[in-house]
Amino acid sequence: MGLGIDLQENNSMSHRRLPFALKLGLSFVVVILVAVALVYFMTAQTITARFAAYNEQAREQTAHQLCGLLAEYRLRTGNWFGAEKLLFTQYTIAVNGQLIVRRTSLVGGDFSLADENRIVVVSTHQEKIGTQLSKAEVATGYPIREGSTQIGTLIIDNSNSPLPPAEEEFLFSAKRSALVGGGIASGVALLLSVVLITQVLSPLRLLTRATERIAHGDLSYRVMLRARDEFGRLGDSFNRMIDNLSRSETVRKTMTADIAHELRTPVTIIQGNLEAILDGVYPAATETIAPIYEETLHLGRLIDDLRDLALAESGELRLSKEPTDIVALVNQVVETVNASLENGLRVAVSAPDDIPAVPIDSVRMRQVLANLLSNALRYTPSDMEIRVEIEVWENMLVLRVLDRGPGIPEDELPHIFERFYRGDEARTRAAGGSGLGLAIAKQWVEAHGGKITASNRSEGGACFTILLPIA
Fold first, then answer.
1. Which of 276, 299, 321, 423 could form a disulfide with 412 if both were Cys (CB 3.0 to 4.6 A apart)?
2. Are residues 334 and 459 in the same domain?
3. Has this prediction a pTM greater than 0.90?
């Protein structure tokens, strides 16, 4: 029983391991052989049918000519005696001193000649002579007429008559030529199939080798396909996929390191301060416990941001949308921000009076705007103004945050909304934040069915644009 199971498993594994090249080659062979067989069969049938039609036409012409000769003979003699001389050719053969007389039908098969009373007077079958034919049999023959009067009938039966040797040889040679032609076509088709299979499998082998190297962690490998067909596009897509995987892997490693760093920093501060208090280095007073409390708040905000970001990316973020006066909401956020600013840095709002209410989650959008303003304030010099512009374009609300900072390097624009992304690696946590603000803003805007983009202004600074559907 166990041996039978092992044999079945080995057989199934051998079937699974059948090379694709062999499968493709066998498929081509089967298709070619079937196609050649069908072409040969159809060609042979066509040749036979056309040759039979040609013979039938030739027999009809011969029959009409004989009918004309027989009518002339009857007109000249007044009877059918001796008419067999017109229908048979007699020849004599000498074999071993003996003379053998043979007769050959000029019609090319069995025939019967009947007079006007349907009585058979001449026939290749002696037993039919003197018998009377039925009207149905006479109707299948060729009439012999004298004027408008039918004086006889020539009936030809070629159903059982073999073809002459010359005609048999012609048909055989025609079919043989079709078979040879099919064999040559099969050989050429197989040769072209080998070339085609080689061209098809070559890029597949390259892609297979690339996938194996990627499976082993080598994300530096690239597929070099010079073809401009579907395989070339597949190679380009494959390379783009590897680039995305490599970038995602880099982001994952960076994100892991950033999360560890962001969590380690407050934990280290809390741990160090608590140890100092326990060891009696610091007194358990308000001024020593307050920094610990601040770090716990920062740690809580980081965990909340990670949770909100995970919910938004998984599509499980719940929004409480209500028609909201977006201008009033922006003004409230800006007033709060301006109240905490120093050194002449201000935020101004520009909006027309006819901005309609927009269905949004005001709490989430307030946080989005706060994140964008926090990012703008971080890079805008003192005594400069940050503008928030609001307008309506078609059926979309457009909200822009424009700062006067150094702008965003072009190579960083595609990654500016990624988690924990910081273009300047030298930026500290205090200067750069947690790196989650823009990522959260993007997810929350998209959860509202909107879109957020970043660009550089021609006069300097960055521009963050939010598009939200009005209805």
1. 423
2. yes
3. no
